[in-house]
Amino acid sequence: MQLGSFSNGIYVVCNWIARLAYLNLLWILFTLSGFVIFGFFPATIAMLATLRQYLLKNHPPVFQTFWQYYKKEFHNSNKLGLIFVAFGSILYVNITFLQSTSNETAAILLYSSIIMSCIYFLLICYTLASYVEFDQPLRTHIKNALLITIYSPIPSLFMIFGTAAIYFAVAAISGLGFFFSVSLLGLVILSSASLAFKRITRKQEEMSNET
């Protein structure tokens, strides 16, 4: 009985490794098929949506599911991506300018911009997780992501440390990034966001019961 449980555990782990590697390769393929600029966000949404199905213990065919989400969300995900790129460009220009300026005020503003960049990263992650979790307008996804970023520090810390761990692992192990970088990051994003969503749902239920 114990051997059977152990073998089943090994099978589950190997299955997840293969699945994550396959999703990562699909993400690369479909990002390139959209000439990177137009393929990045649809491929990312498709990867997260497909991965979410497996976290929910559904087992749809990977390629077919990925392709369906990619086609369905191509236009809306690029609209969302345009918003992210616009704000990201402003942050990048601001940080670059402050780095080239040597005075105390610029140094303080630079640290503030770095903090804003971290919040911006979390905002992107929560927005993407919300996008594949709920059927809402883009503005609502962004607004909710901002509120979650502010009021859910623990899931946000999980997301930041998980991202850092993946970054150092990819940098240290040659070839790991090609097979697991984005899919592992997607797993961290969805898992951390799920904690935040459950926390908010629990608070809403408590407030409803009190009322």
Q: Could you describe the 3D structure shown?
A:
With 211 residues, the chain is mainly alpha-helical. It has eight helices and no strands. The chain has helices spanning 2-33, 40-55, 62-72, 74-99, 104-133, 138-151, 153-172, 176-210. Helix 4 packs antiparallel against helix 5. The protein is globular. 30% of the residues are buried. The mean pLDDT is 91.
* DSSP summary, beta strand count: 0
Which percent range describes the beta-strand content?
Answer: under 5%
Helix content: over 70%
Structural class given helices, strands, pairing?
mainly alpha
The helix tally amounts to 8
Instruction: Please give the largest β-sheet.
Output: none
User: What is the rounded distance between the termini?
Assistant: 49 Å
The gyration radius over C-alpha positions equals: 19 Å
Uncertain spans? none
Secondary-structure element order, as H and E? HHHHHHHH
Shape call: globular
Question: Mean pLDDT, nearest integer?
Answer: 91
